[in-house]
Design a protein that fits this description.
mainly beta; Jelly Rolls; 2 domains; seven-stranded antiparallel β-sheet; 3 helices; about 10% helix
Length: about 350
């Protein structure tokens, strides 16, 4: 089952003994009752990545225990936060409203310097379904006697950072057209991850064409298994671009590759052209190779291979800036360049004239 683990860098706690203070700079999250801080509640903001599914099978909050007072287990509960707050400014006097606890873990002295896991699946699925806004989560310990201190990113030691792991079931894919399913899967994420950007979509043919506009949707028919028409538009008109004509996609000038993007993995590839072509491209062009890609008669793209997934090649700078997503079905010729040759990165040309994009390597 596919999964993704995300870091939770925006954390803090609030203290009843110091009700006007903000503690987002602290290396530890105080949860429970402390001699100096009084009653403490921990707060975490959660930025979910784009996912290929509407719900997850499992969402687990992972916290490293650094301090735990008392011999008896400390009942740490997790609740959904119901009102907006900022970890950078919140205090006990301005703390947000929270829902009743949805899950609990009993932290013991045996958990010191280990990671405890708390199930937060129901909370995350509410966020994904849109039935409740994502205002983050709160940790409490209401035994009135013990304090548990969890590590934050401020502790600097990455293995102790608070994290959340999301796991979901693989979406069934039509393996006979895996390349188009992969492209549809990626486009849906680009629409979510780069909202409001002006996209440029290049199409192949006897005369090169580029379509620019804000992404609207990936249209799917009532009987379709995935969307096949990429809809771009502005205030006055819309353009529908079928997946089989797309040669390259730029998700906005000056954009940066988002590491939250996920890719489908072939499960039971059907022998034949589709499997042979996608696996050949995947193995032939290593990441970091400088290439020129020829699509159709007049369209070329050049740059460094930043990602090479089944059905999709991403060209970008070394830092992921200026990404260009190229579906392999519409590539006619691949020309690897010498590693020593200085090249324009993610550059798209129609004929001998640059159109819309000319990004020089920094």
């Amino acid at each position: 089952m596919p999964s993704v683990t995300i870091n939770l860098p925006r954390t803090t706690f609030v203290s009843s003994a110091l009700p006007d203070n903000n503690f987002s700079f602290y290396p530890l999250l105080y949860t429970g009752t402390d001699t100096n801080f009084g009653n403490c509640i921990s707060l975490l903001e959660v930025d979910l990545p784009a996912l290929p599914v509407p719900t997850v099978d499992k969402a687990v909050l992972q916290l490293s225990v650094i301090v735990k007072s008392g011999e008896a287990p400390s009942p740490v509960t997790v609740s959904k936060v119901l009102s907006p707050f900022s970890t950078a400014t919140v205090s006990y006097n301005t703390k947000p409203v929270v829902a009743p606890p949805s899950s609990q873990v009993n932290v013991t002295t045996d958990d010191l310097f280990k990671t405890v896991e708390i199930d937060v699946t129901s909370i995350v699925n509410e966020w994904l379904a849109g039935t409740g806004p994502n205002h983050g989560i709160a940790l409490a310990n209401d035994d009135g006697t013990t304090i548990v201190q969890f590590a934050t990113n401020n502790i600097v030691y990455e293995p102790y950072f608070p994290k959340m792991t999301l796991t979901w079931s693989e979406t069934p894919v039509d393996e006979t057209n895996f390349g188009y399913a992969q492209l549809a899967h990626v486009i849906k994420q680009l629409i979510t991850l780069y909202p409001g950007n002006t996209f440029t979509v290049y199409t192949r043919g006897f005369s090169g064409v580029s379509v620019t506009g804000t992404p609207v949707e990936l249209f799917r028919s009532s009987s379709g298994t995935y969307g096949t028409l990429f809809i771009l538009g502005d205030a006055e008109e819309y353009a529908a671009i079928p997946l089989n004509t797309i040669a390259a996609i730029r998700p906005g000038e000056g954009s940066v590759y988002n590491p939250a993007i996920t890719y489908l993995t072939p499960q039971d590839p059907v022998p034949g052209f589709d499997t042979n072509l996608l696996s050949a491209y995947h193995e032939y062009i290593p990441v970091s190779t400088e290439v020129e890609l020829y699509m159709g008669t007049v369209l070329t793209a050049s740059g460094m291979v930043y990602r090479n997934e089944y059905g999709i090649i991403v060209l970008a700078n070394e830092d992921g800036s200026n990404p260009l997503f190229v579906p392999v079905y519409n590539i006619n010729i691949v020309v690897p360049k010498s590693a020593s040759k200085t090249a324009s990165v993610s550059e798209v040309k129609i004929g001998t004239t640059n159109v819309a994009v000319e990004i020089k390597k920094k």
